[in-house]
Write a structure and sequence with these properties.
With 337 residues, this protein is α+β, with helices and mostly antiparallel strands. It folds into two domains: 12-147, 2-Layer Sandwich (60s Ribosomal Protein L30, Chain: A), CATH 3.30.1330; 151-335, Phosphoribosyl-aminoimidazole Synthetase, Chain A, domain 2 (Alpha-Beta Complex), CATH 3.90.650.10. It is 33% helix and 25% strand. The protein has helices at residues 12-22, 63-76, 98-114, 168-177, 179-184, 189-196, 207-216, 229-241, 256-265, 284-296, and strands at 29-31, 40-43, 47-56, 82-92, 118-127, 134-144, 159-163, 221-224, 244-248, 278-282, 301-308, 314-318, 321-324. It has a seven-stranded mixed beta sheet, sandwiched between helices. Strand 2 and strand 3 (47-56) form a beta hairpin. Helix 2 runs parallel beside helix 3 (98-114), helix 4 packs across helix 6 and helix 4 packs across helix 9 (256-265). The chain is globular. The two termini are 28 Å apart.
Amino acid sequence: MERILPVGKLDMGFLSSLLGRYTDSGEGIAIGAKVGEDAAVLDFGDRYLVTKTNPITFPTDEIGWYLVNVCVNNMVVRGVRPRWMLNCILLPEGKTTPEMVEGIFRQIYEASRAVDVLVVGGHTEVTHNLDRPIVIGHLIGDAPRDALVATGGARVGDVILITKAVGIEGTSIVAREMEADLLKKGISENLILRAQQFLFDPGIDVYHEALAAAETGWVHSMTDATEGGLATALHEMSEAGEVGVRVEAEKIPVLPETQEICEAYALDPIGLIASGMLILTASPERAGGLRQRLRALGVACAAIGVVTPSDEGRLLVKQSETSALPYFAVDELTKIL
């Protein structure tokens, strides 16, 4: 029987095999397609050209805003300021209105202006058999050769740092899409309203903190957590850097709103989509200074573990018990949406 793949990210081993066979490397490609790497880097001699493509596929009334911030996140974790953006906007047949289309365009434009990105083109169409808009963004930036930070740069002994808290994006999505059901489950209206605003506060962007961290020169690797949450991002960082990780569950910050909403649906916070949380590694000598630098920007930053040799694996320590760090190929959000 033909095997049907589930919703969510592809298995890392399968994806790595595909990328190894069907993508290119060589002259002019500084960093190409590789599991865990956030953006491709092309060598233009005195500078790098950095590119990233990302879709937004889940239903949301803030789809254009999400698109810009998710794409920008994937670029600034390279230590690169994004400059230009092209977008592909696919709209549902029988549901699309001029107001819907203009709303998406306006969201993209306003979110791009907030981070000095120029919208320069793309493609828009009403598409057969879609039940909701789907948007795909392609972001381009450039950077000096000495400014780049790789996802795969983690070194054995590095401290693993994360900003803000786990599941910020997922918490906001659930609160926005499942408000009536949450009320039925006894979640207070005030908590739901606070969680809905997580999109903006603490926020799903990492623009300022990622660039500030990169400018110190202290960061060995950096990424943001998206589908599959913190746990899956750590797997991808580990895979890219060919290292292991050891993470202490009790040190992972979980906001009360996230905790309560996850408990209501039996979701694991570390597997919940988590844009807005930056993951960094730095030497023990630099980690404290990096945390201070981020806190000076008003961004909470916690040390949650260490980078280990690859043969030690990817581990989660919880209440003094050590187990394999879970991998969420399918985001916890898909259990309810």
